[in-house]
UniProtKB/TrEMBL annotation, chains A, B:
Domain (dTDP-4-dehydro-6-deoxy-alpha-D-glucopyranose 2,3-dehydratase): residue spans on this chain: 43-244, 262-465
Superkingdom in the source lineage: Bacteria
GO MF terms held by the record: lyase activity
Stored InterPro entries: EvaA-like, EvaA-like_sf
Name of this protein: NDP-hexose 2,3-dehydratase family protein
Region (Disordered): 1-41
Pfam family, one: Hexose_dehydrat
Length: 469, 469
């Protein structure tokens, strides 16, 4: 028999009547332009300026002879790191391609390991936020861009560089550490990488997260706004963001949409079957029409890109100085979707692109994806399809137009102009040439949750166009 | 001003108020056990007996020296066809595998081209029917099995064999010829093929189809019934059938299911990241612990399989006689899912399997997939997980148990026992060992519409278990 005791009630819990779904929470975050507790876009810009001021970071092109830790092998001429890790510059022989040049060889980045691009998510005062990093990369035209929480190759996180551990990596490599919102194996640039893929991961945590100075919680809406600023959100952040489950498949997937998915799969598989493109790695020394000087490996007509050496000094990286090769493109690229909104759904014109380094030969790419300078002097019939339409678009038809960089860890000042150009029903009604097909954006947002469908340029644009759906 | 004219009314059309969706039509076909106009299972059996009687087909094992059109190359010892086409028997070197044998080499089928497995569909009196073929294959234990409408390698349909064209192929290679219900690039056996994939296609036509004697329309329900007969429905028909859109993703895909899909993708990607398995093609002559005699290539302990030569005579094939190698397994395999139905959803225990020839190293496989004889004499700790549970299952717990053959075009009398064994919540509640995970069947039916997730043995079982969902 016990005496009277104080009854302790559990604290009142105000749960919503229906738990909100992931898509709903992502959409709410997309409509939110202020991070609870830490402010809006002005505060983000202040923080970025401060990070740029506090951290030192310099990239200096150097002759290959001064490229610390790297050498050309005697037998193949490949450019390799002394650890055998990271990546190699090798040769790629491509034959059976469509178009005026069916056969060529070129330098290529060979990195036969799967990297991790991880974005940590957490609800802050009920708003789903993403932890971005103010990351300095050697190839960045403006040194610092917003990156995912983690951006690591296997070599990095095995710490082949002998430096510090990668922050927050445990959320993406320890199973069960959080709730997985996305985890998709996606390709990188098929024009520069040989079958390289990364895991695009978004993990939500309920844990308390210590936010280091170079990191910051942002809303999806803030990221969408920042995607409209030149060279602000890096490629890795864009491809991870494209996988965010903003729409519930249940809503998008009626019977008609399912039929259309099968039709798209069939169209892509037909393109793969039809393609006779064959690519294989060859010694860098055997690559035809490319010349190696003391400073660069260049095409004999100065087209496409150069491979250069750089020395990097950084105050806030796992190691504070290192040498590495980078791919330096010639000229600025154009990456564009034609968009049509006259038929209910928002539709984009997709191009089935076969590239030498694409893991499975063909992926769905944007309507236009090229460096116009590479086509300089060629007749009209050999210019990229729809490039003229994109270039001559009336200002009122331009729905999106921003300079975005390719990944600064591999590319030197690789800036492309990303566009979305609205077209009328007349363009939409004409039969597109072989290899092009109109698809509903919501179809692409469903497909991007699986690997092997969309190339990295298309995924970048998908991230930028999320506010449109 | 015209005179009175006879008014011709269009014929009355009785369309349903709502057009039926594909999933609904597939489900209706699954509930139908009679093909309109041509009868039920007894008529199908009669037809099969007649086809077996009318067509002559013999397979005779022969020494390699008598294997018409094939030879071992001088430099590598690979077994190749004189055309350079079809396939080659090469060597595969596998290292970094889990388990007691981390490194081995073995013969492997190398066929670096994508085949077509096509099932033609058509509504007959409102019932969706599939056109199956009574196909004789050299390795079939019973000569004749039900196959998809088209089962062709690229070499076949390019007619490298110099024979007749493949019937009905145009429905699967000419875009726009019909309505695509499924078109998925799926892998074949990772234990015997090097990264081989096929397009699994289902195309629905409205055209009149001339049905050749060796072909017949069947309902999905009839196929499900025939899948319960030993060695009746061949492997190619099973994997294509597994892709049939029996359930609408809209119904299956609420927010919770979407989260679970991401979790499964993450689990699979983790398994890929963790796997250190590396496999590469090597000369057949360099394969260790395998011996070539006049009649066969065999493992020194007579385990696993043999490569043998056969001469084939057929009255109803594109060419009427040919020689070819076949893979002859040692002993009968066991392929099984543990099934639990205590938690609302029908769930199966999936095993993330790394195999030497799997295109992307790891795929989701059945709970058990092994040839028990290969483990003869090994201690209990090295026996395949859950094999004992499957073998000792009480009759009342066996939900499916049928002998099914692997593809008779590559395998000689390769018969496996396919099972589904029900388990209680006690088994379901215990934490499965690493590499195993319970998944809802409906999740797998959604994933099988994309390539790279499910291996061919799991897909076979998915086809057999369709009536369960």
């Amino acid at each position: 028999m016990r005496g009277a005791a104080t009854v302790v009630l559990p604290p009142a819990v105000h749960e919503p009547l229906t738990p909100r779904g992931t898509a709903e929470r992502c959409l709410e975050s997309a409509r939110t332009s202020t991070t609870p507790g830490t402010g809006g876009l002005p505060e983000i810009r202040q923080w970025l300026e401060e990070r740029a001021r506090v951290n030192e970071f310099t990239t200096t092109p150097v002759p290959f002879a001064q490229l610390d830790g790297w050498r050309f092998t005697d037998d193949t001429g490949d450019l390799v790191h002394r650890s055998g890790g990271f990546f190699r510059i090798r040769g790629l022989d491509v034959s059976g391609a469509d178009g005026p040049v069916p056969h060529w060889s070129q330098p290529v980045i060979d990195q036969p390991e799967v990297g991790v691009l991880g974005m940590l998510a957490k609800e802050i005062d009920g708003v789903l936020c993403l932890l971005v990093q103010a990351k300095m990369e050697p190839g960045n035209i403006n040194v610092l861009q917003l990156s995912p929480t983690v951006q690591a190759t296997r070599s990095n996180f095995l710490r082949l560089h002998g430096g510090a551990a990668t922050r927050y990596l445990e959320y993406f490599t320890e199973p069960g550490r959080g709730r997985v919102l996305a985890d998709v194996l996606h390709s990188e640039q098929g024009g520069s990488f040989y079958r390289k893929r990364n895991r695009n991961i978004i993990v939500e945590t309920d844990e308390d997260v210590v936010v280091h100075d170079d990191y910051r919680w942002v809303t999806v809406g803030q990221l969408h706004a920042l995607l409209r600023e030149d060279n602000m959100v890096n490629m890795d952040a864009r491809t991870v963001l494209s996988c965010l489950p903003l729409s519930a498949p249940a809503a998008a997937f009626d019977d008609a949409a399912q039929s259309e998915t099968a039709a798209i799969q069939s169209w892509l598989n037909n393109a793969k079957s039809r393609s006779s493109l064959v690519s294989r790695l060859v010694p860098l020394a055997s690559v035809d029409r490319w010349r190696r000087s003391e400073d660069a490996i260049s095409h004999e007509e100065n087209r496409y890109f150069q491979v250069i050496g750089t020395m990097v000094r950084a105050s806030n990286r796992e190691v504070t100085s290192w040498g590495q090769p980078l791919i330096a493109p010639r000229g600025r690229g154009v990456v564009a979707f034609l968009v049509c909104r006259t038929r209910g759904d928002v539709e984009v014109l997709v191009h089935a692109r076969a590239e030498g380094g694409t893991p499975d030969v063909v992926e769905l790419g944007p309507t236009v994806q090229c460096v116009p300078d590479n086509f300089h002097g060629l007749p009209a019939g050999q210019q990229p399809r729809y490039l003229d339409l994109v270039r001559e678009a009336a200002p009122g038809d331009i729905l999106y137009d921003t300079l975005l960089s390719e990944e600064g860890g591999r590319f030197y000042q690789a800036e492309n102009r990303y566009l979305a150009v609205g077209v009328d029903d007349e363009v939409r009604s004409s039969t597109p040439p072989p290899g092009f097909r109109w698809m509903a954006l919501r179809q692409l947002y469903a497909l991007v949750r699986h690997g092997g469908y969309l190339n990295v340029e298309a995924r970048s644009l998908l991230a930028c166009l999320q506010p449109m759906v």
